[in-house]
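Fold these two proteins, one after the other.
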Amino acid sequence: MSRQKLLRFEALKTVPNVLEEVDPVCKELKGNWQSTFFKNDHPITLELGCGRGEYTIGLAKVFPQRNFIGIDVKGDRLWIGSQQAITENLQNVAFLRALVQNVNDVFSNGEVDAIWITFPDPRPKGRDIKRRLTSPRFLDSYKQLLKPGGMIHFKTDNMPLFKYTLEVLAERTDIKDLESTTNLYQSVFMDEHHGIKTNFEQKFYDLGENIKYMKFRFDS
């Protein structure tokens, strides 16, 4: 590990807008993120696998009356997002260093209003299918987290992952309001993204790759 990464990991321990799932305070925050951490009653949006938190930061600027939490396991990337949020005085932003499969240990059922899954690892190997963030076990987890009617947004450059996700959703009986496109920036959904691009998105977009997008809810 580089010296820079080591320094960032150490710095995360003192950054006020970053928590780790192993922190004892996270158990106290479960079910109380609004009142205890954000000190308001604004709805919560999660960005899963957030990297540098481009969507967490971008959406927080567009929607100051919502709370946004970026979740990723890579602390050096979270450090970048946390510093930007501090620099721009975004009080409605937090970052959580955690494994996505552990989010139900940190949030109560129905505590989350929306979820963004932005350019996750496609996990192309067969043995890794269950680790895809849109696999059935993860979807079951998100269903518990979301309030009734809560929306999931999913973006990827990877067509096999996109097709896999559509197939998984088609096999379920609890999906509603599913809409999708294989070319986001030539679709009716473009304005819903407020011009926000992740680092990976910009990279693939510049290479001429179409960005795939879908959104859906669970039928409660």
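Now the second one:
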Amino acid sequence: MKAKVFTRRQFLKLSVSAAATLGLSRLPMGEKLFAQSTPSKKPAVIWLEGQDCAGCTESVFSCLTPDLRSVLLDVIDIRYHETVMAGTGAPAESALDAAIADGGYVLVVEGSIPIADPRYLMVGGQSVETTFVEAAANAAVILAVGSCAAFGGIPRIGIPQGKPVSYILSSHSISKTYINLPGCPLHPTWFFDTVLDFLAGNSISLDSSKRPLTHYGSKIHTNCPRRTSNSSKKFLSDWNAASQQGFCLYNKGCKGKETYADCPSLKWNDGVNWCIGNNAPCSGCTESKFYDQLSPIYSR
């Protein structure tokens, strides 16, 4: 598939013209082609944002495969997403209320949810925790995208005490199927594959951290191209030494031995490169200990 590059202006025009209705197709780089026929009624999606940088949104919506025209198909219906939807203010909140009332949607949560004080994050006059609890009640499935939503991530150690989706569900005694898709940011393929598997009714096997084994079933170290350097005790000590290029980054803080993800095979930026391929250590961003318990990044 030939990639199409759009300017920001072109993207906004297309987004507005599509009335925030987006479609998804199975990503070729995941080697799973989506051949389902379009359902008569598009499954609704509500995408809430808590304490986040919108990095996961950027990752998912900026991928070139599929290109934007392939994404704008009638497969799912994103009813609410603060970052990409055309509507704002009262119309946007009305769209959210209507979607919640209809029920049976895929609820996507990006970012952690602060519990220290509801005023740390309020949208439409109420806290994001209240909005999430209301939305979770009628959701068919909940996807916690990114490390912040899945495990608390970076905001977890801040004053607002950002908590993951699982914590809020438990504290409100809400029993719902939820799937964690951690990463900083989330990889587009992890999101598309999971959503489409759910919509197709496919079984999704999860690990003990509620992550799909399809993408979080093996350690970075297992498939790392520098594994042979690790076995032969060739560890990088000088970033600028030409003779050490390609050496194992373990002594430079690489967390690949304790991090589960298929980054070595998928890579990032539409398969162009990934952290270790760019001579940077794995930071362990798909793990529950990220980042405070896996710091510092560049040393053991």
